[in-house]
Amino acid sequence: MVGAAEEAQLNRLENQVDNGGGGAWEYLCLVRKLKVRRSEKVLKHGLSILNDPKKRSKLGGDEWTLYEQVAIAAMDCQCLDTAEDCVKALKKKFPESTRVGRLEGLFLEAKESWADAETVYSSLLEDNPLDQVVHKRRVAMAKAQGNISVAIEWLNKYLEIFMADHDAWRELAELYVSLQMYKQAAFCYEELILCQSTVPLYHLAYADVLYTLGGLENLQTAKKYYASTIDLTGGKNTRALFGICLCSVAIAQLAKGRNKEDKEGSELSSLAAMALEKHYKQRASGKLPLLTATLRNLKL
Amino acid sequence: MAEDLVLDTAIRDWVLIPLSVVMVLIGILRYFVSKLMRTSQLPDAKIVKEGQVVIRARNLRAAANLIPLKSFRSRKVYYSNEENGLLFVPKGQAPNAQAQMFSDPNMAMDMMKKNLSMIIPQTLTFAWVNFFFSGFVAAKIPFPLTQRFRSMLQNGIDLSTVDVSYVSSRSWYFLNLFGLRGLFSLILGEENATDDTQRMMQMSGFGFDPSKGLSAEKDSLDIVQHEWALPKIEQRAEAVLRKFVG
């Protein structure tokens, strides 16, 4: 997560470097520290340092970090020649290093020579079977090739050991959703809610999955999670507001006849509709008629 | 009488400075030796997994009220059933730390290496200091101190009449031994400093048993009562919206 102050500093530095004001190295350091993805800029300014022997030697040991950073940025920009040069330079300097091995695997992946990358990764795993990065790369590789089910298999194997890794759970949830395996995805989102219970996006995604699954019980649960998203975001999440409306309509349809719960729920949905109207009035008043028509269709 | 004590400048040149220099050099040497001997120990998959299970179970316990009852129950069974639950440690199978140490020679070896790099140079330098410089005053602190500091500053001199601000050579050695840490962190980098005091603390903490963590976590998971928090949150959301709309 990048804080607002840090982002402002980053943008200021980027501006300065772009206009020839110097400070390229500081900019690159900040990019690395904040782990942001600005590959084109990194490639441009990093190369300008690397191609200047005087500037490069000034960095001392950090030169190799820069090589790594530029290599990854180059792969991101599909400048494979530059990436290859960087990886080669690193490999010459650190022939035994795992970190360079990973980078080489990444480069092979960028070249889409999957089989070679796989051999590199499996040899890395032989040295250290608990290398999290390599395991994740394998999942990413399967995903890049379009073998979602293989990716899921790898990811499940990874999660069997590193089961507290919430990023992996999130990835798995998204993969399951893309395969329309909603029950499994719901499990993953539950796991995410357990890990980080204050992130509204997980509540929202869980509610979405439950709503998609359908059924009275799931819909009621989904509505509750949309409500908790609203609670966590202070009513600012449009998707959750729409979710409440849709859920209460669907529940009303399913629960026709047994009208024991729809009374307490109706207030929340009408409030959500009002909040939506207010949001649209403030932000996009041109689309307000569209919204009112939709809400009228939903009989809210 | 104490004020008249004059320290020979030769003592400064041949005891005080050499002692400090030798201590620094030995510290640096020890750092490199221990760096050479250090084996990058690969963590055991089972231990890593157990740690992760404990974290996940702790998360479940902390946020249990945020997931539906059905999901909570299935997870609870998954963690703590008596057949193959993740947190269930069969009786008698719990590995004893002591036994594990004997069965795994690597572990004992590792400890010995650590100890060797710590103890051998220390005993050697202590013996060296004791042999060559024992029993005389090496320095004087420019401020007076109370009698309590006598054992700290005048180790090796059994004279009660000498003023406490005089430092004996052996005490100078001890002061260097514990006081050079800041200098080492300057020379060798922040975290590389050979820190004896910290290492001693680590030694005493040895023998942590992960399976104990598992069963403790299981016990606390067993007594967690599930009370779904979401219905209440629904009302809270209503209040939030009312405030927003109104």
Characterization of this structure:
The complex is a heterodimer of chains A (300) and B (246). In chain A, helix 3 crosses helix 5, helix 11 packs antiparallel against helix 12 and helix 16 runs antiparallel to helix 17 (288-297). The longest helix of chain A has 22 residues, at 262-283. Among the domains of chain A are: 1-95; 96-158, Serine Threonine Protein Phosphatase 5, Tetratricopeptide repeat (Alpha Horseshoe). Chain A is mostly helical. Chain A is built from 17 helices and no strands. Chain B is an all-alpha fold and 246 residues long. Chain B has one domain. Chain B is 63% helix and 3% strand. Chain B has a two-stranded antiparallel sheet with strand order 1-2. In chain B, helix 1 (9-37) packs antiparallel against helix 5 (105-133) and helix 2 packs parallel to helix 10 (210-222). The longest helix of chain B has 29 residues, at 9-37. Chain B is elongated. The model of chain B is unreliable at 203-207 (pLDDT under 50). Chain B: This is ER membrane protein complex subunit 3. Chain B: One of its GO terms (cellular component) is EMC complex. Chain B: InterPro entries: EMC3, EMC3/TMCO1. Chain B: The chain crosses the membrane at residues 14-33, 119-143. Chain B: Belongs to the EMC3 family. Chain A: Pfam families: TPR_EMC2 (PF22890).
